[in-house]
């Protein structure tokens, strides 16, 4: 490009403005493409209506009338939206005596920070799509009827602080990936059908304060790595075959 200008200042404008404008145009186009395809509150509403369709028994008719397609999603019982992005940030359906399963669509609630469905009768296994909930800080599936193994992908929630899986029918061993959760403070696995050794990797949970493993079929010894957990306040593994 040739810049025919009398002063260096003006030259700068003539020569560098076009590339800048080109970048701005690219940015605007990129933003437009993004907003056209990115999920929004409508995505959350569809996901919640699919979740409702997977609830087979709602004895107190809590969702039956309240969770209607014509209601604004942020006004549904148990739903909290964030003001910044206007997306669902918390879902609390605890203690509602609901029976049902968890559909893969629940993984579309990509702004969810808190998911609490404890004390119901949810059953079956957990869909892999839940790994998309990478903003989760609090997850409570306690006191339900979930079965199958604790999925390996529970080790991939980068922000999770509280993980409650107590009083279910989870089987198999604790996946060693659970040691990958840098923010985890509470891990509650009591009253399941878990077996085998407590993995060494649990010693990597440097923020862990409460670890509940009672009433399972764990064997072996408490791993020496747990001695590395400087913030640990409670470790309980009553009614297992673990040697201290
Ligand atoms: C959500 O996105 C879809 C396209 O994916 C669009 O049709 C719809 O109008 C959007 N809804 C809101 C509330 O922005
Ligand atoms: C659903 O429940 C919420 C919270 O109790 C309430 O504010 C809302 O008005 C209810 N909506 C309908 C349609 O009943
Ligand atoms: C986690 O712990 C295991 C066993 O104690 C160790 O071998 C591994 O290097 C640790 N991983 C990280 C990422 O710290
Ligand atoms: C010990 O744990 C097993 C398996 O979870 C359970 O069935 C049993 O009731 C527990 N026993 C006591 C004394 O808590
Ligand atoms: C964790 O504990 C193990 C066994 O007690 C020890 O060998 C290791 O060096 C410790 N790791 C850290 C990061 O403190």
Automatic annotation (TrEMBL):
It comes from the Eukaryota. The keyword Signal applies. InterPro entries: DNA_repair-toleration, Leu-rich_rpt, LRR_dom_sf, LRR_N_plant-typ. Residues 1-35 form the signal peptide. Keywords: Leucine-rich repeat, Repeat, Signal. Residues 43-81 form the Leucine-rich repeat-containing N-terminal plant-type domain. This is Leucine-rich repeat-containing N-terminal plant-type domain-containing protein.
């Amino acid at each position: 490009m040739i810049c025919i200008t009398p002063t260096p200042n003006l030259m700068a404008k003539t020569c560098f403005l076009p590339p800048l404008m080109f970048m701005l145009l690219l940015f605007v186009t990129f933003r437009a493409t993004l907003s056209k395809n990115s999920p929004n509150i409508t995505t959350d509403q569809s996901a919640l209506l699919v979740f409702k369709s997977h609830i087979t028994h709602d004895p107190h008719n809590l969702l039956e009338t309240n969770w209607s397609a014509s209601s604004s999603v942020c006004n549904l019982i148990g739903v909290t939206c964030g003001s910044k992005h206007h997306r669902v940030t918390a879902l609390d359906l605890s203690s509602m005596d609901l029976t049902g399963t968890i559909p893969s669509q629940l993984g579309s609630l990509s702004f969810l920070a808190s998911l609490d469905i404890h004390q119901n009768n949810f059953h079956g296994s957990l869909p892999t799509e839940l790994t998309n909930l990478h903003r989760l800080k609090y997850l409570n599936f306690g006191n339900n009827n979930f079965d199958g193994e604790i999925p390996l992908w529970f080790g991939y929630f980068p922000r999770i602080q509280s993980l409650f899986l107590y009083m279910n029918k989870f089987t198999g061993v604790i996946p060693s990936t659970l040691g990958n959760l840098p923010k985890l403070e509470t891990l509650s696995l009591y009253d399941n059908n878990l077996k085998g050794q407590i993995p060494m990797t649990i010693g990597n949970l440097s923020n862990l304060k409460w670890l509940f493993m009672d009433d399972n079929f764990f064997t072996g010894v408490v791993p020496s790595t747990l001695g590395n957990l400087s913030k640990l306040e409670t470790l309980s593994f009553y009614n297992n075959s673990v040697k201290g």
